[in-house]
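Q: Entry one of two.
A:
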Amino acid sequence: MFAGEYHCKVDEKGRFIVPSPIREQIEAEGQAVMFLKGPEQSLLLYSMKEWEKVLERTRTTLDEDQSRLFMHFIVSEAGTSEIDKTGRILIPGRLRKLVPVDEDLEITLVGLYHRMEIWNPSEWRRYIARTEDRYEHNMAKIQNLL
């Protein structure tokens, strides 16, 4: 399970060093990851094992038309990468453009159970500020789960 928030530097080629707790989880399931467009201006990152589970769920859940739409609009825009020997992952170029990197060349990784989200740190802070009211509204239910 992915959890936590991590700030990672991105080099000029679009690579970042994967924090060790995350890297260990990904490497336990292979070296490769899948990148997808996420909500707002974020990317989703799945281990290949988790991505295969997503594909299996879509095959068993979606009808033929929905499956084609999933393939045309989600899978066709996905990109893969592998953790290199130094623990870095390259964000595919066409997807990297979706998460504009500021001058400080940093991204924010956010753990979400079976996947990670990748955000520009400024966009992440704006998103949290925009959704804080919803969090407050739902706080009682969330607290009951803890």
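Q: Entry two of two.
A:
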Amino acid sequence: MAENCGITFSLALLHPRYWLTWFGLGVAFIIAQLPDSSRHYLGRKVGNAIYTNKKKKRYNVVKTNLEIAFPDLSTAALESLIKDHLEWYGCALVDYSLLFFASQKRLERKVEISGKQHIDQALADNKSIIILLAHSVMLEFGPAALGFHYETFGSYKSSKNAVMDWMIAKARCRHVAFVVSREEGLRKLVKSLSPCRLMIFLPDEDLGKENAVFVPFFGKLKATLTTTARLAKLGKATALPAFSWYDPVRKKYILEISPALQNYPSKDANADASQLNQALERLIQQHPAQYMWLLKWYRTRPEGKQNLYN
């Protein structure tokens, strides 16, 4: 395991309270041996189960987000996109078994970087690089794709389940040099930036009003992190928006890299956040069903605005 990649294995992880988790990982090992078509058949079944129970919270969060992002969709088209997204979410759940148990050789065949020239140009210019990776359902395949070509690092949020925390760290650190916990703050991330390695940062999560400004995201004000621009400024880094998705035709996980954000960061936090959101929108619109609409992107509201997820 690479440096700082998380906890190490201990006998405490064999405690009876984790036996169900270990059983689940055993099932995941079996699923990882299946071809894409069989895994995705199972994944679509999972997604359809969520879709069928339309009174559940997850369905309603997806519906609310998609109504905001695509207000011109007909009722039928909206329902089709909701169903499509939840099926992709189910596929992603079973596909993560590959990150845990597939061989490096098999994974390398399954991942690809589109727009790799944007990274290589920044490296040729001796620039530090931040990959601004959107929360797609296939998010974790992005670091895997990068790890076969570059030295990478990023931040992480620990899991409440100790076995899963160990397993996720073990899988993730097959591809990244090291990870930094969110609790350690920005300083360690900035210090780790250099032209010889790439930082992976997730810029789109709603983490509240602190270190955020309200700017449009698909036409609705969203609490957008200013941390992203601060990292780029402190690290004198080139910022490259990115999106990880599965191509069902080629049966590959593609990491889509966009051109660098221009004049970023500027002296205007709102302008920086708006440029970031617009770049992410363009990526999401290419593969809308595979963005993580299950998250409450508009959870934090401006003063006086009502909760959108009631």
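A: Comment on entry two: The chain has one domain: 12-290. The CA atoms of residues 173 and 202 lie 17 Å apart.
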